[in-house]
Specification:
With 357 residues, the chain is of the alpha/beta class. The chain folds into 2 domains: 242 residues, Type I PLP-dependent aspartate aminotransferase-like (Major domain) (Aspartate Aminotransferase, domain 2, 3-Layer(aba) Sandwich); 100 residues, Aspartate Aminotransferase, domain 1. Helices cover 40% and strands 12% of the residues. The strands form 2 sheets. Strands 1-7-6-5-4-2-3 form a 7-stranded mixed β-sheet, with helices on both faces. It starts with 12 loop residues before the first helix and ends with a helix. Bound molecules: pyridoxal-5'-phosphate. Pyridoxal-5'-phosphate (PLP) binds next to α4.
Length: 357
């Protein structure tokens, strides 16, 4: 029973088939010929992905993961050493590591007790001492709370500070078309695409501030490609990208609004069943519109051991999320439960009983 889609979703049969079929095409036609033959499909996928974050097909680069996207962004932006990046206290640890590795200084913006941005405080911080950009993780890995992305985008726009959104846990899950300047994420979570594929979407105004490692000036004959394509790897798992394109097509066909509503309902059903069960406490508000629920353990209960027991004894897949993911916000590990459209209320009942027979 997969209640772990915030880690990695199950791919549909159509996605699995599309990936396998492209791999076969590569063997039959040659890798680069097969890629060229799939160009129209890849471009359609760019268009749909871009639409999910309110940008255009030309703004999309396929990458290898969300982390690869943010590393590309900060390394190619080449901001002055020590330039400040505004983040919330619960920022994902690996993003913080990418910023510091690029010589940037994360500065913490104010948030409430749940970790949600304090808009008045953010406005003040942007006015008094604006950072080079604000980086907002719309839905965190360690807590299923949605940040007020549209409001933060408006504050950033008013202050002239670019906003970058991490939508790794948000795309295919909550609305990500919020007016950001750049957004990045991954295929394998709520879009239910293959692993090893991600995306980085940049408005042209951000694109003009970046310098690609290999750009048009290094070519004898400047190739005419869309601006974001300079940030794609020269070689890549193209079959995986095609899988992502099919997955976003399925998401669109299912209706993003309907998917969001169903995921929010599953989140609520999870919290209703689990809060207080055997002494476990839900961190999110009951009606937070996400399908991610995190549970704080009763005293002296080892979350990792419980996750291992749920898997071994009940075939239930969950995540034990360690404190390292958001050390400023978590006081210890939490058990993360994340159903998707293929999950059932009966599975949630099994989990509730397994937590406290
Ligand atoms: C909020 C958030 N950002 C970034 C990442 C990193 O994504 P990836 O593993 O695709 O690099 C994750 C992965 O769990 C995540 O939850």
């Amino acid at each position: 029973m997969h209640l772990d889609h915030a880690a990695c979703s199950r791919q549909s049969t159509a996605v699995l088939d599309a990936v396998a079929q492209h791999a076969r095409h590569e063997a039959e036609l040659g890798g680069y010929v097969a890629e060229q033959a799939a160009d129209g499909l890849l471009q359609q996928g760019r268009s749909v992905l871009a639409g999910l974050v309110g940008m255009a097909a030309a703004d999309v680069a396929f990458t290898e993961s969300a982390s690869a996207s943010v590393r590309t962004l900060v390394s190619r932006w080449r901001l002055a050493p020590g330039a400040r990046v505004g983040v919330l206290p619960g920022e994902y640890w690996q993003n913080v590591a990418a910023f510091t590795d690029a010589g940037l200084t994360p500065v913490v913006l104010p948030a409430d007790a749940l970790g949600r941005a304090d808009l008045a405080g953010v406005e003040r911080a942007l006015r008094d001492d604006p950072p080079a950009f604000v980086h907002l993780t719309l839905v965190a890995s360690h807590r299923g709370v949605v940040q007020p992305g549209r409001e933060v985008a408006a504050l950033c726009r008013a202050a002239g500070v670019p906003l970058v959104l991490d939508v790794a846990q948000a795309v295919g899950h909550v609305d990500c078309d919020l007016g950001a300047d750049a957004a990045y994420g991954t295929s394998r979570k709520w879009l239910a695409g293959p692993r090893g594929v991600g995306f980085l979407v940049l408005r042209p105004a951000v694109g003009t501030r970046l310098t690609p490692l290999v750009g048009p000036e290094l070519y004898d004959d400047r190739p005419a490609v869309d601006h974001a394509r300079w940030y794609e790897s020269h070689d890549a798992h193209v079959a995986g990208r095609i899988g992502l394109v099919v997955a976003v097509g399925e998401h669109l066909a299912a209706g993003p609004h309907r998917v969001r509503e169903r995921l929010a309902a599953l989140g609520r059903a999870t919290r209703e069943r689990l809060d207080g069960r055997g002494g476990w406490r839900v961190a999110e508000p009951l009606d937070e519109p996400t399908a991610i629920t995190t549970l704080r353990p009763p005293a002296d209960v080892d979350v990792r051991q419980v996750a291992a027991r749920l898997r071994a004894e009940h075939s239930l897949l969950t995540t034990a999320a360690g404190r390292e993911r958001a050390p400023r916000e978590l006081s210890g590990p939490v058990l993360r439960v994340s159903p998707h459209l293929d999950s059932t209320l009966e599975q949630l009942d099994v989990l509730a009983t397994a937590l406290a027979p």
